[in-house]
Amino acid sequence: DIMTAVLNLPGTRGMAELQQRADALSTWKLALQKGHLPKIETLEWPQEPFKAKFAKALSDLGMPRFTRRYPAILNTLLTIMNERLFDNGSQRMSVPLLTMVGASNELPESEELDA
Questions:
Q1: Which residues pair with 91 in a beta bridge?
Q2: How far apart are CA 79 and CA 95, in angstroms?
Q3: Model confidence over 34-79: pLDDT tens digits?
Q4: 3-state secondary structure of 43
Q5: C-alpha span between 46 and 41 (Å, rounded)
């Protein structure tokens, strides 16, 4: 279950840290739903250097623009990226994810959509 997975992440030492991580995940999700990345300097989780690398990877992939355009897929992508699981109807499937790559054949229509 997701609570066990989060509690078992390296560096989790109790409910206070768990709440901190839940708040950070909510911040990431809300920002992506609005089509941008959160201000990573204000987030206490994840730790550096992963936080900056993760934000750069999402930006390079154009993830904020993509999730704003297709918001229904955000939960699926986050579940695959964070837990390597995919919900296929009532069945939860393991995803042997080693690399995630995104591409588009469309150019941004305005500067504020540039990732």
A1: 88
A2: 10
A3: 888 888 888 877 778 888 888 888 888 788 888 888 877 777 887 8
A4: coil
A5: 11
Residue 47 is classified by DSSP as P
β-pairing verdict for 91-94 and 85-88: antiparallel
In angstroms, the CA 43 to CA 41 distance is 6
Contact between residue 2 and residue 83 where contact means Cβ atoms under 8 Å apart: yes
Determine whether 17 is exposed, middle or buried from the number of CB atoms within 10 Å of its CB (0-12, 13-18, 19+). Answer: middle
Which amino acid is located at 88 in the chain? N
Any idea which residue has 């204000």 for tokens? Answer: 42
- Listed in sequence order, the DSSP H helices in 1-115 are 2-7, 15-33, 50-60, 63-69, 74-83
C-alpha to C-alpha distance for 24 and 19, rounded to whole angstroms: 9
Tell me the whole-structure pTM to 2 decimals. 0.53
